[in-house]
Specification:
285 residues; alpha/beta; Rossmann fold; eight-stranded mixed β-sheet; six-stranded mixed β-sheet; 8 helices
Length: 285
């Protein structure tokens, strides 16, 4: 297995969340993943996460999966290594002020503003607002970015995406972004979601910060898009099968399965390789 499957020298794997470990509606697609993560960790692997998701929300998933590794949140801007957080406090203050201004503005326009963990609210189908109203779900958990979901409340009280509405509200929101010279806006129209951060914020930056906190060789990065490519100097890359062509081209290994099942496939291979290496060492002695 060690000859057939690429294994990094550091038995540390960071997994992307959306579109990798989680599928549509922020759900796992292969429930056995919980057992597979436990088995990988029992075999000696450290399993953590790297995502654009806020740190507090990632802590929930970290606990649900029973992971034992670090967390890289907000696309690399926040690093949690053994409970110690690293992020830019000055930037965080500017983002907080911008969120307050956005909340005040949307409320002044008669919109329903819900503050909390938007992903959990959408995952659980929480009712927000009345039919015909516009709801803005503003994350109050982000430390180094802004995240907001825009939804229209339909007749059944469900939150639905309205592209025209999203376009107009994002355009208005731009007046309240922090006054950074390298602001980056990631507007995902398919999800009615906009995330605002610094252009320099990347998962590579977060991984390098992690490397400053712990002595590590090349690690494993499991993902589905080019944002999960952090460089061959610090990681080997593993793509689930629903990955973008650009990430697949750079990946050291492409799973046969998509989403959670693809992660499960990769982690099982890690565990098997660890067992094989242990057996080989015992034979040598």
């Amino acid at each position: 297995m060690a000859e057939q499957f690429p294994i990094p020298e550091e038995k540390l794997a960071l997994i992307d969340l959306d579109g990798t470990l989680l599928g549509a509606n922020y759900q796992v697609t292969t429930p056995v993943i919980y057992e597979t993560i436990e088995a990988a960790q029992t075999s000696g692997w450290t399993i953590g996460m790297s995502s654009d998701t806020p740190h507090e929300a990632m802590k929930l998933w970290h606990q649900r999966f029973g992971m034992n590794g670090p967390i890289i949140a907000e696309k690399g801007a926040v690093v949690d290594c053994c409970g110690r957080l690293q992020y830019n406090a000055a930037d965080s203050e500017q983002y907080s002020k911008a969120c307050t201004s956005l909340s005040d503005y949307f409320r002044s326009q008669g919109l329903v503003v819900w503050e909390g963990n938007p992903v959990e609210a959408l995952r659980q189908g929480i009712k927000i607002g009345k039919p015909g109203e516009t709801a803005v779900l503003l994350s109050n958990q982000r430390l180094a970015s802004i995240g907001l979901f825009i939804r229209e409340v339909d007749e059944a009280g469900d939150l639905i995406i309205n592209n025209e509405l999203s376009e107009s509200l994002v355009e208005a929101a731009r007046d309240f972004y922090p006054d950074f010279d390298d602001i980056a806006e990631d507007f995902n129209r398919n999800h009615g979601l906009v995330i605002v951060s610094r252009t320099e914020t990347t998962k590579r930056q977060g991984t390098l910060l992690l490397a400053q906190a712990i002595d590590m060789g090349r690690i494993a990065m499991i993902g589905n898009s080019l944002a999960d490519y952090v460089g061959q100097d610090i990681a080997m890359h593993y793509a689930v099968n629903d990955s973008t062509p650009e990430f697949k081209e750079k990946a050291d290994y492409i799973a046969r399965a998509e989403l959670t099942a693809g992660v499960d496939e990769i982690l099982q291979a890690f565990s098997l390789a660890a067992v094989d290496q242990k057996a080989l060492r015992s034979l040598r002695h």
